[in-house]
Please model this.
Amino acid sequence: MAKSKKKKPVLSPKTKILTIILLIPITLTIYIVAYFSWQQVRGWPFTEKTVYQQIQEQFDLEIPIEYIPVYVAAEQKYGVPWTLLAAHHRVETRFSTMSTLISPVGAEGHLQFMPCTFVGWQHPSCKDLGQGEIPEHDKTNPAVIKKYGGYGVDANGDGIADPFDIEDAVFSAAKFLSIAGVNDGQLKKAIFQYNHSDEYVENILFYYKQYRDYGNQLKKIALDENK
Model:
């Protein structure tokens, strides 16, 4: 039987050592380039949106990103935390996703104002729950609202204070809450004034605390998105 010939190694030991020595700087270079590339990518908008989505997964309903700048602007004007305004919006109309923005008792708009609260309880038709008999054109008239001491605000400067306009509604809610006690540090009192229900207060505080934990991150991402 013929003896099988020993196969010579493809690479000699010396060549292997040289190959390894050459590969070390190449590997290090690839690692360094990959590391610094990732540092740059981390700052790109799509990675921030991923963070935003991860935060939103903590909530039962996503806070629409387009509303956050409105909440923040109202916070800056009235001193009411934007996360508290978001909590009210969540509880009142599920971020305006309800099929109607008029409640069975007559509360109207994104933040569910009774007409007499929005226009002012000094209006001669205001009594009981506050539905009143206020003409439609008076409900959104800033001059009428000022006359009767209402909380309605023309936030976007279009000449009307409309509870069905998101900016007007949020600013009006912020005005109400600031006067009702938030600016004096009486958060629970202010929330109770908005809706006289202990359960309501608990619900608002639940969402407020949830949103507050991520408030700075959400605000930064939303405002950057809005630039």
Summary: The CA atoms of residues 42 and 48 lie 8 Å apart. The mean pLDDT is 90.
